[in-house]
Structure formats: C-alpha cells, structure tokens
Amino acid sequence: MSEIKPTDTAATNAGEEKDWAASKYFSDSLKTKKPRPPKPQNAVTIAVSSRTLFNMVEERKIYEEEGVEKYMAHMNQQKRENEPLMPGVAFPLVKALMTVNSRLRQLYPDSEELFDIVLMTNNHAQVGVRLINSINHYDLTIERFCMTGGQSPIGYLKAYMTNLYLSKDGEKVTEAIKEGIAAATMFTSGDVENQLSDTQLKVAFDGDAVLFSDESEIIVKQCGLDMFFEHEQEFENIPLKQGPLKCFLEALGKLQRKFYAKNERMTCPIRTYLVTARSAASSGARVLKTLRSWGLEIDEALFLAGAPKGPLLQKIRPHIFFDDQMFHIEGAKELGTIAAHVPYGIGQKYHKGELIEQTVKDVKDKK
After folding, report:
1. Catalytic one among 116, 206, 214, 324?
2. Is residue 173 located within the same domain as residue 215?
3. Which partner from 39, 54, 153, 303 sits 20 to 30 angstroms from 13, CA to CA?
4. Rg of the chain taking only CA atoms, in angstroms
5. Which residues neighbour 219 within 8 Å (Cβ) at sequence distance 6 or greater?
C-alpha cells in the first residue's frame, strides 16, 4: 500500500515548488475571502464521486434505462442548472472535513496540512455546471474537479495524490485498492445527517483486512477460532502487516497531532474508533501492539468478540464506518450508520461465515 504521499524525484519536486510559489504569489495578489486549496503534497486528499456527494438516484436511473445521451440532456437542461442536487451519503463527511479545516486554520493560519476534497467523477464536462452550482449552493469547499467523460477516473487518483477514494461503484473501488490507494464503496443508510456531530469528525474502522492485512483472518476462515487464538498469542509481538486503510488512519493521525501540539487533545475535532469482532483477551493484544509499532493512536478500541457491530456504531454515530465484510455493512446500515465496504482480502469469498465461491478443484472433489 502507498505511504501518506508518494515521493517524487528531487528535480520534479523543485519544479513543482517553483510552480506553486508562482501560483501562490498570484493568488495572494487577489483579494478573496475564500480559502485557497492546499498543496496536494501537504494535504490529506479525499476524492469523492458525484454519486456519493449528491443523491443522483433519479439521474442514475435515466442513465441506466435511457442511455448516456438522455442522461446528459437531462443534466444539461438550463432550467435544471440552478436546481441543486440533494445531499448524498458522503455529504455529512465532507461537511465534517470542512469543520476540521476551519479549526486548523484558526490554529495554524499559514499551514497547508489540511483536508483537500476533490470531486472525482466519470461525468462529462458538459454536465459540470449543475455540479458546480450544487457545490456553491451548499457552500462546499471543493475547488478541484476531475471529470473524465465516461472513462474510469482511477488512473488520475495518484496524480491527485489521493489519500482516500469514495465511490458507489464497487469495481472502481476494487481497481483503486489494487493501485495501492485507500478506497471504499459507500452505501446509503437513510437520512442520518441530523444525527451526526457537526463539531467532530468521527471515523470508525474495522481491524483485519481494513487497517491490517487479512493474514489472521485467513487462519480464522481456514482453520477455525481455536487455531486463530493460538496463532495470535504466539505472534503477539510480531506486528500485523498493513491493510488498505492504514495509510488513511496515518493521515488522520498527522492532523490530530497538530491539535495535540496546541494542548487540544480533549477538544480535537477528529476522533477515531477501532470496531472489531476480535476478542480482547484472546486476540486483542496483537492489534494494539501493531498500532503502537506503527506509531499510530486510536482514540477508542471496541472488541466485540463476535457480537453485532450495529448497536455500538449506532451509539458512536460515525460519519463513516469502514469494514471488509458485507454482513457487517448491512447490519450497520440497518441501524442508520453510514457504512463503506472495503473489498479486500479473503472475506470477499465469504458471507456470514459461509463460503460464497467454490474453486474448480472443490467442485471436482465433490463429484
């Protein structure tokens, strides 16, 4: 998996610094109350698709049933251009990111270590006017767009130095993870915006196959819980390998430390949670020691020992919850949690503990 930000050659960095210095000089000469986007290499970049940021169910139906030309004609109608799209599942998260940025700018007026939100969509540029008008209607700080005209935007994620990509398209999310970029598929869970904190960004993570690799989960699936418990106790002092979302937790921690440096740990507007099906006594120590070996903190660690995650998440009310297994996602959704599926690891072959796919060899063995 990629680090917080990719490292370029010295020559490339020197050229970029020169370009940014010239851009900043020009920008500073203009009078505006709108904050300037940070340098991508300094920012924590969150790329969201248009269908996660806005509720585009009606538009998507037109696209799927009537084709791209009808969809573009619908979006391009001048009478609709000033009709704002309704908020989507990622909308509360984006608002929370903006709240954190506001606090950071108060403490560090000249710092560029901020969240940078990018609209990453395969929409055609011709429909961009309504997207822009909708963003301005809600006063969202989204200045960088990538509209790829029907092509996959995944190839642009690294160029935008993306730390996290959120979409409703599972295939694109899988493609992004294969490219080493933290990514997840977001699911609608009803109108929960009014129930979420407007002063603190809350992010909840599953452990195995999300923050950590699926190495231990493979043992659970293939050898059972008893072997898993023995394995975790034997290797308690050996850190787990990193999973697809480790880099995003690392990026959040970088911003959290800026608040800690100003003695604002207890009022930090970012709070992180580990919500894992692991048992604390039997397999929890390795998880906590792994985080410690990485130099990362988690604010709250909830070990559920196989109990449902939904009720705990209902209490936390995170702006987003990441999990690799769909039955946990479904349970969270049913109780109103905004959930995001991370399609990674051996868990993709199972549902509620049952193997979904049989290999050709398994089929032959049964015959």
Report:
1. 206
2. no
3. 153
4. 22
5. 227, 228, 231
Q: Which helix (H) or strand (E) holds 98?
A: helix 91-107
Do 65 and 175 lie in one domain? The reply is yes
Active site (annotated) includes residue 198: no
Q: Are residues 257 and 151 in the same domain?
A: no
CA distance 20 to 348: 42
Q: Within a domain: residue 257?
A: yes
pLDDT in tens, 228-275: 999 999 999 999 999 999 999 999 999 999 999 999 999 999 999 999
As to burial, measured by CB atoms within 10 angstroms (0-12 exposed, 13-18 middle, 19+ buried), residue 364 is exposed
Total domains present in the chain: 2
**Is 356 inside any structural domain?**
no
Q: Any idea what the CATH number is for the domain that residue 137 is in?
A: 3.40.50.1000
Pick from 276, 272, 273: which is nearest to 284 by CA? 276
Q: Which two tokens mark 29?
A: 């000469």
193-230 pLDDT tens trace: 558 999 999 999 999 999 999 999 999 888 989 999 99
Distance, CA of 316 to CA of 319 (rounded, Å): 9
DSSP annotation of 306 reads T
**Which one-letter DSSP state was computed for residue 154?**
G
**Residues 229, 145 within the same domain:** no
Other C-beta atoms lying within 10 Å of the C-beta of residue 57: 11
Is 174 part of any domain? yes
Stated as kind and residue range, the H or E segment containing 321 is strand 320-323
Please indicate, yes or no, if residue 256 is contained in any of the structural domains: yes
Same domain, 141 and 207: no
Q: Please tell me whether residues 268 and 305 are part of one structural domain.
A: yes
| Main-chain phi, psi angles of 164, to 5 degrees | -155, 130
